[in-house]
Every structure is written in C-alpha cells, then in structure tokens.
Amino acid sequence: MRKDAFFFFVVDYKRRLETRAKKRLFRKLDEVVPLAREAWLEMNSGQRRPFVLQAKEYQEDGECLSKYQSLVRDVSMLEEARCAQANKTRQMKSLIDKLVGGAESRHELGNQDFYFISILHFGRTFIHTYQPAELAIVKYSLKCGIKEQLHLLINPGVISLCDEYSAMQHSKNTHALPIPPDALGLAYYDEIAEMVLEFTKAKEHPTVLFTNAQNVSIVESMLLEILEDHIDANTLYVSSLEELFYRLKQATKMNPLSFVPSMKMVQNMLNEDIFSNTIGISCQYHESRQLFMHCALSQCVRWAYTVSANCCSQMCIELIPGKHIPMDTSSGSGSDTSDMHITVVHKPKKIGKRGCSRRITNE
C-alpha cells in the first residue's frame, strides 16, 4: 500500500480493533482495508487530519532520509576520488624517485632520458572530454639536451554542433588551428598511437611522460583515448613536470649546503616561461603565424631549455645552443637541427585532405 493518510488510518484501525478484541484478528493489513474504508468514508476532514499530518511527516522524513543517503553517497564518491588521486600522486612520486634515483645510483643521471609531452585541444566538449588538436613529445637528457622531437597535428573527426562554437572560440584564443571537420593532420588514432609508442619505446618498458601539473589529467585522458587498446594500464604514465624538475634540482645539487628551491619556486620558474618568445622552435604552422606560445612543440622545447638552464651548470655540463638553450636569435633560429634527420610524413585524412607529422632525430 502507498503510505498516505488512509494507510496510517488502516494501521490505527487494525490496532484499535485488535485491542478491543484482545487478540489478533487479521494476518495481513490488506484484510482490514474493506472495513477501514467504510469507516474512512464516514469521517470528516477534522477526524482525518491526524492521519494526513502523519503521512506528511513520514513523507518529509523520507525525503530527508533520501537526501541524507544521496549526500552520503556523494561524500563517499568524493572520498574515493580523493583517495584514488592521493594514491596516484604517491605512485607518480615513487616512479620519479626510481627514475632519477636509479640514474643517480648508476652515476648516469646526465644520460637518463626524459620525455616531455604537450597536447593541445579544441576545448572541453559537452560531455566533458577533450578533442586533441596537436601533439608534441621531446626526448631529452641533461647531457645531450633535446635528442629527438615528435610533432603531430591531429584531426579528431566530427565535432557536435553544441561544441562547435566553444571549439571555435578556444582555437581563436589559443593555437588558431582550424576546427573539425577542417582540422589539419592525422585522423587515424591507431596510426598516431603506433607513432607515439615507437617514439617513446613504451612497448619495450614502462615510460613516464611529463607535462605541466595543471594539465596532467587532460593530457592523460586524450592520450589514453588515442592509445586505447594499444597499451595496458602499466605501460605509459603521465606525470607532473614540476615534480620531475624539483627532483632534478635536488639531484644536481653538488654542494650539500647549497640552496634547493621549494616546489613553489620550481613552479614559478616554469610559469615564468622565459623562452616563450624564442623563434625557430615551433612547428611550421605556428612559426609562420608567430604563435610561439601556443605551439605544443615549442612548449616542450621551452621546458627542456628551462630545465637545462637551471640544472646543467651544477653538473658542469656545457650548454649547447639549440639543444639546451636557444640558438643565437640573430640567426633567426632557436633550435639546432643541423645534425638531426627530419622526416615529413604525409597521410590522407578520413575526409580526403592531407595531414603531416614531423619527427626530428639525432643521426
């Protein structure tokens, strides 16, 4: 029975009948209903009022209980998410400690390779995902500086009408890349995945890619969507560049009494982005439009330059222009590719246009 005013009257009516009879008269509440209905129809609004109020109180208590249970579920979910994030943060710190600490113990810190990644997107979609627009990864070591570069423009395919305006505004205010369906670059995620995995050697051993802390979750979500079935959960990680930078600052401290900056100071060093106007380090699309700060490739190179400028001198590593720091700006170039092999790969897109990717390697 629905727990309205009549329900509470039936319960009371049964109790009164059985109290007078001094025994149980009904096995089920439904058996009382025919008798109670006759009595209920003869009652006026004043007589019914106590049961109406009782039903109203029950309904309010039920709503409060429902809200409380919903709140408990929300708090529980938030706590689970917080714990998951805390565990993930600890895991990333542990991976960085093993990466840097292991290289230190082998006296190979200068030769240890690190991967910096930047993925630009077309903004946040209606379903709270991000559609990639440009991907860049730089392979870097303290001793050699920038060793290899992978750069891709990406066409994520059809974009919904509700996302089109926000994508257009985001592109206009940042990287200025054409939005889908006119986006440039590769459209086949399987092909992009193979290029990323080959470049990072993630199929051979677990690999950590570093990006700025505020974009770790965004980059990770887009990268996992691209890689999808090509890797498992323990193959490739995305972690905080700030955490790596801080750990490298600690590791490259030659004098035990010398000053080590705090995590906040390390973050400020990256945020200052003193190489943001360097020419010659962006992709062709952004270089020609002088959008140096909004190029994924330029971003990765600038991170490499910042790490080099702050860590290499402590290890007595000579800074090589174009590898550790920008080239002489008077030459109009910020990255030395004289001893690198540049391969331009043209691939057809699903919509019939052509995209390109660039990979630069030492050879």
UniProtKB/TrEMBL annotation:
It is found in: Cytoplasm; Nucleus. Residues 129-329 form the Maelstrom domain. GO terms for cellular component: nucleus; P granule. One of its GO terms (molecular function) is sequence-specific DNA binding. Its main location: cytoplasm. InterPro entries: Maelstrom, Protein_maelstrom. One of its GO terms (biological process) is piRNA processing. The keyword Magnesium does not apply. Keywords: Cytoplasm, Differentiation, DNA-binding, Nucleus, RNA-mediated gene silencing. The keyword Calcium does not apply. Belongs to the maelstrom family. PANTHER family: PROTEIN MAELSTROM HOMOLOG (PTHR21358:SF4). This is Maelstrom domain-containing protein. It comes from Anopheles minimus. The lineage of its organism: Eukaryota, Metazoa, Ecdysozoa, Arthropoda, Hexapoda.
